[in-house]
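Example record for the data management plan.
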Amino acid sequence: MTAMATNLVQLKLEREFDTMDTDNDGYLDWSDYQQLIDRYTSVFQAGKDDPRSGQVQAYFQMYWMELIRHAQPSTERLTKEQFVQANRLAIIDTSRLNMVEAGAHVTFDCMDADGDNEISKNEYETFLRKVMKVSQPDAIEAFHKLDLDGDGAISRQEFIRATREYFYSNDPDAAGSLFFGHV
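Corresponding structural encoding:
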C-alpha cells in the first residue's frame, strides 16, 4: 500500500478544509459553515419555509458542534490539522450523530431539487460548481462512477455508498474517493 493510499482520507479532508476556508485565513469557523448553508439554500432554491433549508441548517449546526467537541480548540475555530483530526474522530463516534449517514441524506435531499428521489447529472454538477466551488473537470467524470447501475442518475443508495467511501475509503479509485475529483 502506498503512502498516498494510506493517507487518502486525510488528503480528502485537507482538500475539503481548503474549499471551506472561504476567506483563506487558515481557519474554519462557524461563518464558513454559514456561507456553505447559504450556498445550499440559494443554489437549490430552498427558501426559509422549505424543509430542506431547515434540514441543512440543523445538520451543519450539529456537525460543527461535533467537530468542536472532538477538536476541543481553545477558540471557536479550527486549523486544518484540528479539522482533519476532529473529522476522523467524529465519523467513528456515532454516539450523538452519525455524521456520514446524516450528511448524505441531508445533502441528497437538498440536491434533489425536483424531488424525484435521484440526482441528475445537472443537479450533481450544480452541487459541485455552485455549492462546493469545485471546478475540476474530473469531478464531473465522477458522476458516472457514482452512478453504479449506469441509469443516468445517482440513487439515494448510490449517494450514501459514495459518501461512506469518501470518509472511510483509502482506495483512490473508489467512487466516493472521486466525489470532488481526483485527489
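Summary line stored alongside the record: The CA atoms of residues 72 and 86 lie 9 Å apart.
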